[in-house]
Amino acid sequence: EPEVTQTPSHQVTQMGQEVILRCVPISNHLYFYWYRQILGQKVEFLVSFYNNEISEKSEIFDDQFSVERPDGSNFTLKIRSTKLEDSAMYFCASSVEWGQPQHFGDGTRLSIL
Amino acid sequence: ILNVEQSPQSLHVQEGDSTNFTCSFPSSNFYALHWYRWETAKSPEALFVMTLNGDEKKKGRISATLNTKEGYSYLYIKGSQPEDSATYLCASAGGGNTGKLIFGQGTTLQVKP
User: Fold this and answer.
1) Angstroms from A96 CA to nearest CA on chain B
2) Which of A68, A53, A50, A105 shows the shortest CA–CA distance to B99?
3) Quick one: chain B helix, strand, coil %, rounded to 5?
4) Between the N and C ends of chain A, which has fewer C-beta atoms within 10 Å?
5) Average pLDDT over residues A58-83
6) Cα separation, B27 vs A60, whole angstroms
7) Candidates B44, B91, B98; nearest CB to A55
8) What residues of chain A, 26 to 65, have a C-beta less than 8 Å from chain B?
9) What mean pLDDT value characterizes chain A?
10) Which residue from B32, B43, B99 is facing A31, i.e. has the nearest CB?
């Protein structure tokens, strides 16, 4: 069965550094998402993306965050200048359509030191 | 602001017991309700997407019901097995049709052999 794949599985970065989290959505999916879960908290929506545009973003998704689909297969989340509070598990997801089940990757654990 | 709540937070049952959990969500501006099953060290797996009031969906021993007027959904597991041990997440897709999911905190089920 097709899967959403995320790399790396774990990223350790110094505060203030830039990080790029990578995702390969399922190939025939057109709708893409990033979520995160800070330890002990709920899974939080960050951003949804369709047709090379952001469809919706949360308050968390400030100017330090950006998303890109650079080559038709990868979907990336960039954090320009990381903060301690960015430490979380970041999940990429994709779906065939809005309102259809979202398929999640295994996540990237981001640790900011 | 959407607030999705789940109860109980955790549940321990014996193999063979039937169990159920609750998800409550704001009934205004409802679009869809998603259920996911999340095993430790794996990615969340979609169980159901429910949209219609009174809807009932079934997948093997797992079923779910939806009441959009009062804003709740129940997930039932009949004859629990150890492999059902996981965290069960519900998420509300609000209006706006952007795929954004607002998650509850999850119910963690432990089934003892």
Assistant:
1) 11
2) A50
3) 5, 55, 40
4) N
5) 94
6) 25
7) B98
8) 31, 33, 35, 41-45, 48, 50, 55-56, 58
9) 95
10) B99
Q: What are phi and psi of A75, to 5 degrees?
A: -135, 115
CB A50 within 8 A of CB A33: no
Q: Which residues are registered as beta bridge partners of B75?
A: B21, B64
Q: How far apart are CA B32 and CA A47, in angstroms?
A: 18
The 3-state DSSP class for residue B7 equals: strand
| Count of CA atoms in the C-beta half-sphere (13 A) of B65 | 11
Residues A104, B76: Cα–Cα separation, whole Å:
23
Residue range B85-112, pLDDT digits in tens? 999 999 999 766 788 999 999 999 999 9
User: In the numeric block, which tokens belong to residue B98?
Assistant: 């952007």
Distance of CA A22 to the CA centre of its chain: 8
